Amino acid sequence: MAPTAVNSTTETKAEDTLKKANAEGKKKKKKKKSKKKKLEQTDPPRVGLSKLFPSGIYPEGELQPYKDDNTYRITSEEARYKEKLANEDPETTYNDIRRAAEVHRQVRERARKFIRPGLTMTEIAEFIEDGTRALVEENGFESGVGFPTGLSLNHCAAHYTPKLVILSQGDVLKVDFGVHVNGRILDSAFTLTFDHTYDKLVEAVKAATDTGVREAGIDVRLGELAGAIQETMESYEVEIGSQVLPVKPIENLSGHSINKYQIHGGKSVMLVKNSDQTKMEEGDYFAIETFGSTGRGRIVESGECSHYARRVDAPHVPLRLTSAKTLLKSINKNFGTLPFCRRYLDRAGESKYLLALNHLVSQGIVQDYPPLCDQRGSMTAQFEHTILLRPTVKEVISRGDDY
Q1: Is the N or the C terminus of the chain less surrounded, counting Cβ atoms within 10 Å?
Q2: Could you tell me which of 147, 142, 65, 141 has the C-alpha nearest to residue 104?
Q3: Which of 178, 180, 179, 183 lies closest to 90, judged by CA?
């Protein structure tokens, strides 16, 4: 028997229907690729930087060319080669201080929004330090807080961390905190006010810091750099009620070089012109730090001390107090030569340590850093950036969008 014939039109329609059904089925099976959401910093800041920068490479600071006789450095093959070696050397790696700087920028961005009248100084310090520890992913001497948060009010310029004092609307608050990675300390500070009376004071000090940063460089003499800072600062005045007061640089405070695990490295950038012929050198790492005042422009040590650091050149002396020996072991274990404060000793589990601490100070093993204050009734302001004098270019490590 012969096969039955099928209508060709009907067959074509059936094939089209089948193809369509198969195509729709494939579409249903295909899952939509979800876009991976970019991880962002929280508020308060708690996301570790390694999660935000999985490559492990952190942003450069602001790059500024050298001036005058050093302009050749940016294209110099010799300087480029030196920089390549410096960047590859684990002892001088730039990436560590850039990581510390990025922590500082992210923490201070949120701190500037958080800080407001009505908060206690302790609440502010803990907000900053908890954020710093989380972002730098604190790990013993490898990474952590660089030094105790300074929260100095009004006539007090530095080294003050009060406990129960409440921030007021009319206060001028200096916020100075640090971050370290492998002992490379990032030191930067800013000033906050909550009314407009002292805007010019803040503006003067910020401008003076920017001048110091701009004029700093390889072979620059420290005494001349101080003169440039002084000139900028003294070009400002502050109007308070019916009075017009000059802004004075605080003559016995200074910026400083920074060494590994040592916040004050030996070189000082004073704020008033002087005869210091010491030169900045290639590879130097400096905190350009300026203070201005509506008072006498000179500070004295005043008030209860909260800041300390074990001296790098501490003498080997026998300690007669057992409690002092025990406390020194704790300081060596937890801080080494990094600065600490009494709040940090409390956090480390120490108690009833004041006698032992004073004994370590009297023996020259620990250096105390009391609050530094101008005359009462005056107001002081502070700004600070850390800079790295690279072989080819100057890098303002701590620069951010805010200052």
Answers
A1: N
A2: 147
A3: 183
